[in-house]
Amino acid sequence: MKDASPAKPYALHLGVIALLFTLSFVLPEYHHGLLARIMVLAVFAMGYNLLFGYVGLLSLGHAMFFSAGLYGAGLAVIHLGWSVPAAFAAGFACGALLALVIGLLALRTSGVAFMIVTMMFAQVFYLVILYLAAWTGGDQGMVVPQPMRVLVLGSTSLDLTNPTVRYMSALTLFSIVLLISLAIVRSGYGRVLVAIRENEERTKMLGYDTFSNKLAAVVISGSICAASGAAYALLFGYVGSSFASVQYSILPLLWVLLGGAATTLGPLIGTLFMYYVIDVASGYTSAYLLIVGIALILLVLFFPRGILGSIRQRWLGWLP
Amino acid sequence: MTDKNGFFDLSRSALTRRTALKGLAAGAGLAVAPGFVRYSQAQSSAPIKIGFQSHRTGIGAAYGRWYEKTTAAAVKAINDAGGINGRQVEVIIEDDGTDPGRGAEVVGKFASQHKTDIVYGTLFSHVVIGSAPAAGEAKMPYFVVSEGHHVASTKLNRYVFQPGITDVKSQIQSMAPWIAANAGKKVTQIFPDFAFGYDHRDYLPPALKAQGAEVIAQIAIPPTESSFTKYFPQIPAETEVIYHVMVGPAVLTFVKELGEFYGSNRPQLFGFIDSLEATDINSPGLEFLDGSHFWEGSPRYAQPDDSPAQKAYRAAVGIDDNGAAVGDPKDVSTAAHMFGCWETLYVVKKAMEDAGYKGPEDRAKLVEATEALTEFADGPEHPQGPKTFNGKIHQCFGIQNISKVEGGRLNVVHKTKIEDGLYEPEGDYTTQAL
Amino acid sequence: MHFGPHLLLAALEGLVTSAVLALTALGLSLVFGVMRVVNVAHGEFFMLGAVLAWAISTAISGHPALGFLAALVLAPLIVGLIALVAERLVLRRLNYNPEATIVATIGMLYIIQQLALTFYGPEARPVEPPFSYRILLPWFGYSGYKLSIIAASALLLVATWLVLTRTKIGLIMRATQYDSETAQAFGIPVTKVYAGVFALGAMLAAVAAVLIVPISQAHYLMGQDPLLLSFIVVIIGGLGSLRGTVVAAVLIGLSDGIISVFFSPTLAKIIATLLVAMVLVFRPQGLFGTTSR
Question: Do B403 and B387 share a structural domain?
Fold first, then answer.
């Protein structure tokens, strides 16, 4: 944002997308599958980053937006027999609507109160999923039947359970959301959001309606998270209440902070880092959480602004 | 951290400290146990690899530890007797964190990185259901030891099997006649407000009704709850039997609070031992359970009429007559469930031998060979007792035990018949494509 | 059971929850209020208190009260020491940066949980209460020990209040909370205050856990619920308000207990959570907070 020239950032982002595309053909099977999952969850983190990184609103309830997408899409397939695109749209719409309602209520608060209110709404959402177990499968969750997970486009039908199709679908979603968030960040609207983060009172005095700008940010953020959830349900075939628990609200915060808040690529880096630390550490010891904990502390000691945040601060000022 | 300087040095009891250290050593111990490493002797073919999806961390960790011990014992026994199809068995353990998302990733890891022949071992229902799609897509036979009704419901897929432990629906149905005849006719159910509880909520009332008894109240406790007293007033005064199936670390609290609430003047109690697996029945506060009854899959305490196979199994796994680890009476096992690991591995052995299993290319044959199984005879391979297997719903059926708490132990007072637990199949996996 | 006794029982249960919650939340409130650190590992200090209570009370033979009293003194001290070390080694080096400390305390959470799992194990283990007296009411029996928890908690809260308002230490803490830079300018050793506050916060959580463990059992995952509830209490009560923290703890404990009388359990939880959230939506500064931050 410090450099007005748009060429470099766009080149970087397209390069990252091209790299991910190429990786699809060279990665061993296991890492190929893992990366597909990471890209879907990185979308979740990007949605979170938009609100937390750029507007400075720390939510501890984003699991509800993710699971609104997850259940919106999953239940539409399971109970209504909807096709993949319709189910994805349903999940997305559920998340957007929920984000609008939550935004209207929670934005009456700010700071730590916002954090707690979102956490409590998410807890209500989680309990409602358990309460409606007849439809949601309660804590056990439900399997989205394999034959239903087929994307029909004209005369071709793509089987979402096929690893390559799954990888490319995840990459498509990831790329769209990455470019959208880059565009938002570089737009006038993005600058208003940052202005709100830096000094809300002053932004208000400059004549901006900070409430509706923040509300729009909550809705966009919630919708992106819902898109990630909907994709997760359709690509991986499982909807379950553990994705609505507070743990899944803390995870995107952690991913974003690790990768670097308010950096467009940080969410991907953070998710990738966290996944591989767990994966590698659990291969060496059954006490791998110890290693994960130590890794987090060391990382934050040496990269207090997250990986990309610290790189931007020290070397690459133009990073978006 | 070593015990010399660790804060656990405060503990004066050597036994309890040993428990802790044992937990630490378990991982290391398994790594050097025979069968867990590539068989080093001259062997014509590579070992058969079994991916073990274990609850090492998360809420299921107490079960996971005992599932690992039982698995190690069974694999040792199988390998000592020559392995499967002349090949040794190697177990690769991955932690699923008792989380369905991680569970699915672990199945993927077994299929594509470790390239195991099968995946096996999961207990918690949500992990099974979360992992099942991954297993189906990878066409990876997935043998669970979960006791959930999810497999038999035929809502999962053709690659998921539960041949070593009976499902909850069958267990409940077998309990009903005994409860109605011996405990009382008016039953109040207390169960966790999640899936494990719903099986009890849905299947007990009709089963009791068929026996001339009835459920007069159902109290579902939210899973986030850690204290229960405030729900007890909802138990109707005319209740003759309280039927409880709480799970998780808060169950001790549940029983203690029930004791404080009722004192000695209590209704009959009937529970599922799931509540108190890995927990000493003589813990402070549990005196209240004296004289109450429990379902047990396999008895925790050694019984006078134990078969030689049961005795051999207990010795192999390393549990004493009280169902605790040999040498550490405080380390109580999950005896009512973990036998399922032992029996499942022997089913896998049988099915692989029937299929002439050679490698991953024979997985479909293995599925068909497992579906073709019908009976497992009582004996060293099935120490809990005889079983039948329904290949259409991938579920086994067996006998159940009802035990009474007497003098600080659980004594089996009734064994059900296999027929008591049979029900109409809800579907047929064999019609699905392989 | 009739409505009256049922309500009485629910209220008693609510008060026990409130008593433990008030202590735990007070610890979090101090750390949050004075240091502006969102301590995600607070629940793990609570868990450590319970686990240590088990270790200490099983190590001491004789009357259960002996072991319990030893635990009540020793467990918080050990937990305080661990917190002090963590503060020195990690938080101070991060300069108490709000975002970095979230990651760091999540790291601590993983480390403490894993150590507890490795050295203590996955089982839930009971601690014998110092005395077991069952109060027999006309309608139901009730644990005498539970009532004593309410008394002990009240006593500890009053003591903390006295320290905060009547001693020099308390004055220094309040000054640091109000404006750490000015406090530093007046020669207050702010980093020492921070270290002390972090340790004290952890000790309060540990005391609460020792009190509750005879009725609730030690388990390595027991830290999450107290953490979430404490956050709620701290914010509802108003940041830095001791009175507000206590009132909020009682409000949340009682509403949870009493709403359970009228609705099915899970629905009761949903309604109670929603109600408390709405309090915050319409009074964002908390019940006793003066300014929004």
Answer: no
Select from A111, A119, A301 the Cβ nearest to the Cβ of C228: A119
Domain CATH for B264: 3.40.50.2300
Structure tokens at A255: 């991913």
Residue among B100, B148, B193 minimizing CB distance to A141? B100
C7 pLDDT above the threshold of 50: yes
What confidence tens digit (pLDDT) does each residue in C175-204 have? 888 888 888 888 888 889 999 999 999 999
Q: Which residue has the higher pLDDT, A315 or B79?
A: B79
Whether pLDDT at A3 is above 60:
no
In terms of CA atoms, which chain A residue is nearest residue B105?
A34
Number of domains chain A is built from: 1
Tell me: the pLDDT tens digits for B149-175?
999 999 999 999 999 999 999 999 999
Query: Is the pLDDT confidence value at B25 over 80?
Result: no
What does the alpha-carbon distance between residue B339 and residue B313 come to, in Å, rounded to a whole number?
A: 9
What's the number of domains chain B is made of?
A: 2
Contact C99 A257 (CB under 8 A): yes
- A297 to chain C: which residues are within 8 Å by CB? 90, 103-104, 107-108, 111
Q: Tell me how far CA of residue B125 lies from CA of B95, B144, B163, B204, C285, in angstroms.
A: 16, 10, 15, 19, 42
Pairing mode, strands B118-120 and C134-136: unpaired
The H-or-E segment that residue C179 falls in is none
Contact state of B194 with A130 under an 8 Å Cβ cutoff? yes
Tell me whether residues B23 and C16 touch, CB distance under 8 A: no
Burial profile A190-228: b = 16 or more Cβ within 10 angstroms, e = fewer: bebbbbbbeebeebeeeeeebeebbbbbbbbbbbbbbbb
**Chain B: partners with 3+ C-beta pairs within 8 Å:** A, C
Query: Is some CB atom of chain B closer than 8 A to the CB atom of C60?
Result: yes
Q: What would the mean pLDDT of C89-111 be, rounded to a whole number?
A: 90
Structural domain harbouring C125: 24-221
Which is more confident, C137 or B136? Answer: B136
| Residue C266 to chain B, least CA–CA distance (Å) | 5
Residue A33: pLDDT above 80?
yes
Across the range B116-121, mean pLDDT stands at: 94
